[in-house]
Amino acid sequence: xxxDSRHRRSAARRKAAQAPVxxxxxxYGLPDGFVNTGMILAMAGIVALHHRTLLDALFSLFx
Length: 63
What we know:
The protein is mainly alpha-helical. Helices cover 81% and strands 0% of the residues. It starts with a helix and ends with a helix.
């Protein structure tokens, strides 16, 4: 019984830790971790593209 209650509690915690229904992973049919790392990489890529000229200017100053 003790093991069962512990399992139920961890299962509840896992359920609470899950993202809400509008989860991008559901949207694209991809695993959660992939979407999370993919989102971060995509954001970094977008920022890099948008600020590329700015970064080039900065690098030319320090290079």
